[in-house]
Amino acid sequence: MATLAGAQTSTYAGATVWRVILEWLTTVDHKKIGIMYLWTAGAFGLVGMAFSLVMRTELAETGTIISAETYNSIFTMHGSVMIFLFLLPIGAAFMNYSMPLQIGALDMAFPRINALSFWIFLFGGVLLTLSFAAEGGTASAGWTAYPPVTLDTGNNAEPPGAGMDMWLVGVILLGQASIFGSVNFLVTIFKMRAPGMTMWRLPLFTWTTLVTGLLILLSTPVLAAALVLGFIDRNGAGGAFFDPAAGGQPLLWQNLFWFYSHPAVYIMILPAMGIVSDVFGVFTRRPVFGYRSMVLALIAIGLLGFIVWAHHMFTTGGVFLPFFMGATFLIAVPTGVKMFNWITTMWRGSNIFPTAMLFSVGFLMLFLIGGITGVFHAAVPVDFALHDTYFVVGHFHYTMSIAATFGFLAGCYYWFPKMFGKFMNEGLGKIHFWLVFIGVNLIFFTQLLLGLDGMPRRINDYVDNPGWELMNMLTTIGAFVSAAGMMVFLYNVFYSLKWGERAGSDPWEGTTLEWATTSPPPAHNFDSLPEIRSERPLFDLRFGERLQDDPHYHVNNGHNGSGGSHSGAPSASAREEG
Amino acid sequence: MAAGAIPHKRVHPVRSFLVGDEPMTTGLWGIIFFIFSEIMFFAGLIAAMLALHSDTLLWEPTNGAHRVEGDHVLPILFTVLLVSTSIPMQFAAFAIRKGNRKAMLINMAIVLVVGTAFIINQYFEWSHAGFGISDGPYAATFYTLTGFHGAHVIGGLVFIFAQWLRGLLGHFDAKRNTAIEAATLYWHFVGFVWLLVIFPLVFFLS
Predict the structure, then answer these.
(1) What is this structure's pTM?
(2) Interface predicted TM-score of the whole assembly (ipTM), two decimals
(3) CATH number, span B24-51+73-204
C-alpha cells in the first residue's frame, strides 16, 4: 500500500503513513477510488478462488472430505463472492479509473457519491464474508438463493440461519452501491465530456460503461425488490411471498431474481468486451473494425438482455417458452457482430502481442466457446436435457466468469502503466497467461463433457460412472494450474510495483485520451487536452497532419451535432486540401 | 442590439415544465436517473403484488379480516391530498425559477404539512388494520408496499425539509435551484407511485 500510495500522492512526500492512509480513506478522486475497487475486488477474487479450490479438492475423487453442508456453504459463497464482490466491482474499478480519463473529464459527476458507493460496497462485502461467523454458518442456498430453500418452512431439514439474512442484506447494500455508481457513470458520460467528444467519438470502453450503467440502473432495483421481499418473508411474513405452503410463489422469486441476474451477466461481460475492444484498437495498430456497428451491437445486447431472463427457468414449466427461446437466439446476432469485428480488426493488422493482447485473444477464444454453448442452452429441448448439469457450469464460467476475467486481466496489463507509472513484467505476464489459459480450458471444457455425461451440479460426491472420476481429476488439476497462474500474477503485481520498468505517459502508443496525460495522472487528470476530432484523438495528434494530406483519409466527424465549435472543422479543411 | 440578432431559444414544453428553461445541471440528470432506478424498484414490488394476486389460492388475509370495515373515505381523502401536493411543490419550483423565495417557502411548507399528515394517517391505517404482516399474501403485500412507499414519502419529506431550511437561510435564486427542482421531481414520483400502489391494494385486489 505504501508503494502504491507513494506513486499516487507525490505531493505528500514526507507525509506520515497516517496522513497517507487518511488521504486514501477520505479521497473522492475517481482514480484512487478505482484503484481501491481494484485492490478490494482482487482480494475478494482470491478468496473466491480459494473456495473453488476447496470444491475441486472435494470433487477430485469419489468419497467426501468435507460435509455436504460445508460444501453447500462453500459453493454458495464462491458464487456470491465471485459475482458480487469480484466481477461486478472489478468492472466498476476500470469504469471508475478509465472512463473519466477517456472522455477528458476532471472527475466523476458526483465524486462524493462515488466514494459513498465504494464504502457501501466494502461494507456489504464485509457483511457477506462475516456470515461465516454467524450461527448456522453462511447462506447455503446457492448464489441464486431459490426459496423455499432459503426459508424456514418447517420442511427444511436445516433451515438457514442468520447467515442467510446477512447474505440478503449484504447483497442489498452491494446493489445500492451499484445503483449509485451507475447514476454516476451515466451522468458523467452525458455531462462531463470534453469539448469535441461527441457520443460517436466515445472510446468503446466508455460506450460499454454507458450501456452497463443503464443495465445496472434498470435491473438492480428489481433484485433489491426481490431481496427485500425475501428478507421480509424470512422475518415476519412467514413465507407469504415465496413459500407455496403459505400462499407464496417460488417462481416469483425466480422471475424477479433473473430479471436482474440475466442483465447482470452482461454487466459483467460488457466492460470486459470494452477493454478488449480498446486493446485491439491499440495493439493491431488499426482502428477497431466497424466502430458504429460495435456500438449498435452493444446497445442491442443491452436491450435484448432485458427480455430473456426466463431462459433460466425453462424447466419450471411456468414461462412462455417460444418467446424466450427466440429472444435468446437473437442475442447471438449482436454478439456475433462483435466477434466478427474483433477478428476483422486483427485481420491484416500489424499485430503485436504483449500480455494485454494475449489476454484479449484468449478472451475471444473463451467467449466463443461460452457463446456457442449458450446457444445450445437457448434451444428448449437441449436445455431440458442439460439443465442443472455441469454443462451449465462450464457454459457460464466460459462466458461471464473466465472470459470476463480475461478481459479484466487484459485491462490490468493494459492500464497498469497508466495507474502506477510502471510496466508489468512481460515475461511473468506470459507465464501467467499460458498457465491460466491452459488451466481454465482444462477445468471448463472437461466440465462441459461431464455435463454431457449427465453429472449434476451442486453435489459434493458422485458415483464413478465411466470417466467421471478421470474428468473430475483433470478439472481439479486445471483449477490448481490456473491458481498457480494467478499466484504468478499476484507476484507480478508486487514485483512490478517495486521494480517495474518505468512507463512514459503513452507507453503503448494508445489512441484514446487517457494516454494524453502523465502516468499516473495528476489529481486534476489533464493539464491540457488535444483536439478531439475522431474516436482516436491521440492517433490524430500523432499522425493527423500527415493523413490530412491523404485524399483517402476520412475523419469520423460525429453525427449527433453536439461537438462544440470545432466539430466540423477537420473534414472541412480536409475537403479544401483534398 | 437588433432583435433579429438574438438567436431564437427553443423551449421544450414538457422539459420546461418539469425542470425549467435553464440548462440541465448534473444534479438534475442525477436525480432523474435515480428516479428511474426507484421506478424499477417499485415495478418489482408491484409486479410481485400482481403475480401473487393472480396465482394464489389464499389471497385474502388468513385471519378472515378485511382491510377496512365500512367505507374507503380516509384512504381516498389522503390519496387525493398526497397526490395534489404535487401542485404546491411544482408552484414552489415555478416560484424559485422567478427568484421568489418567499412563495417557494410557503408552497413547500404546505407540502411538508400535508405530507406529514399523510404519514400520520398511514400510522393509523396500520394500527387499525385487522391483520398482521404474517396473515397471508395480501397482508404481507399490503404492509410491504405501503411501508416502502411510506419510507419514500418520509425520505422525500426529509429532502424537502432540508431544502426548506436552506431556503430560510437564504439559499436558492432564479439561477441556482437544482435541489428544489430535484425535490419537486422526486415528490411527483412519490405521489404517482402511490396511485399505482394504493388503487390495486384497496379497490381492485382486496
Answers:
(1) 0.90
(2) 0.91
(3) 1.20.120.80
